Amino acid sequence: MTGLCNIRPSARVLSSSEREDLRPRPYRPRDQRPIDRPPPPGGRMARMWGKWIDCRVRPGAHEAFAVGQQRWSAISDQPGLVGQAGGWAPDGDRALLLALWADEPAYTRFLRERHDRAAADAAQHSAYSAIEVATGPVVLTVPGSSPSLPDALTRATVLRAADCRLHPGRADHFLDVQHRLWAPGMAAADGMLGGAVTRLAPDRYLVTTLWTTPAAHHAYTTDHLPALLPRAAVPTDVHTLTGHLLPLEPSWLVLPVRSP
Asked: Disordered: where is this region (predicted)?
């Protein structure tokens, strides 16, 4: 029997439509509408809105920044607030904060009605040398042991953030892996309270998870992560990943309060 390696296809010139079919295309899961896509015309899908803030704090200004950050508790009665939390990055000169809103209109209303006044009252501008703010829709929530994200924010002492910048055309596959592999894999770990995946740009996604203690997150990295990594094929999707394991400052936590 002739081996497969010796079989030669007959030579012919491909048509333009056949050449088009052979072009590489971005990954798309079969029989599944991509997670990060709008609803069909006439439909409505409310999405939470995420905000990631990275402040470079000046030497000697940490206390002033921290005091100002506590003043953001004034926005706790703002309609649509889900919660805000943050802390110091391990290098000590950066403050990182995650804010979550019920949807984009709620966040836009906050910007219009309260943000500038709250920022002026916090008086932090002289405490940092640079600030980067990125916002976008929460395209996937990660289930955990908490019944809601506000509850998770209340109980968490650590925030794990993975700022992922993707290769072009890999967003659908990245989100599919988050949905099928990472979300259930992390949910199986003791101490994982909940989390969210936020699209900050077309090829930039922020994966955030809340943990009860640093020890709980460490146990996940030793007991669960090694089995998940080979299946995720992270380098196929992710060009660069910046990770933070952030001890949360309790006095920076802002949770929604409702007027009686």
From this structure: 1-46
Measure the CA–CA gap between 155 and 248, rounded to whole angstroms.
Answer: 10
Token readout for 208 is 């955030």
Q: Which residues are CB-neighbours of 10 under 8 A, at least 6 positions away? A: none
Average of per-residue pLDDT across 29-51: 50
Kindly state the average pLDDT of the residues 183-198.
Answer: 95
In the sheet that 204-211 helps form, which strands lie side by side, from edge to edge?
Answer: 81-88, 94-101, 49-57, 128-142, 192-201, 204-211, 158-166, 238-247
Question: 134 is in which domain, residue-wise?
Answer: 46-250
Q: Which residue has the higher pLDDT, 90 or 170?
A: 170
Q: Is the pTM of this model over 0.90?
A: no
What proportions of the chain, in percent to the nearest 5, are helix, strand and coil?
A: 35, 30, 35
Number of domains in the chain: 1
- Interatomic CA distance for residues 154 and 141, integer angstroms: 17
CATH at residue 136: 3.30.70.100
d(CA 14, CA 20): 10
